[in-house]
Every structure is written in structure tokens, then in C-alpha cells.
Design goal:
By secondary structure, this protein is mainly α. It has a single domain, classed as ACP-like (Non-ribosomal Peptide Synthetase Peptidyl Carrier Protein, Chain A). It has 3 helices and no strands. The chain has helices spanning about 5-15, 45-55, 60-80. The termini are far apart.
Length: about 80
């Protein structure tokens, strides 16, 4: 599955599971999940999103956050050593 297809599946899952009043096409790839300038999710939506990601994609949210932070730390450390 291509990156674009996966992004679209995630957005479609969000629209369906969170009963959003927008379409998947209206969700920008870098749209903030929370707040007035983003999708506008609340804490209940966040829980539903985590459950949907685990159910539909077998993704552990905690492990995914952990891996993302480790990856970003590595990028940050590399950019500091190359300066």
C-alpha cells in the first residue's frame, strides 16, 4: 500500500469512527488534531482515534509515540553533530 493510500485509509477511518462532519479529502495531512485551527477533536475523540488505530491497523499508540520520539531524537542529534 502506498503512503497516499495509507493516509487516505487513516482519514476515512477517522471520519467514520469519529463521525466527523467533514470528508477525508478535507483533512490536510498536517492538520492539527485538536484546537480551532485543526480538526477540532476532543478527549473522547482522542480515545476513539487510539482504539480505531489499534483495531484497524494493529498499531499500539503508546509504542508508536515512543518510536516517533526516538526517531526525532536521532534526527535532532544528527543535525546537532553536523553543525
Amino acid at each position: 500500500m502506498s503512503d497516499a493510500d495509507l493516509r487516505n485509509r487513516i482519514k476515512e477511518m477517522m471520519v467514520k469512527n469519529l463521525m466527523l462532519q467533514i470528508t477525508a479529502d478535507q483533512i490536510a495531512d498536517d492538520a492539527p488534531l485538536f484546537g480551532p485551527n485543526g480538526i477540532g477533536l476532543d478527549s473522547i475523540d482522542a480515545l476513539e482515534l487510539a482504539v480505531g488505530l489499534e483495531k484497524n491497523f494493529s498499531v499500539s499508540v503508546v509504542n508508536s509515540i515512543h518510536d516517533y520520539i526516538i526517531e526525532k531524537r536521532g534526527e535532532s542529534a544528527q543535525s546537532q553533530t553536523s553543525s
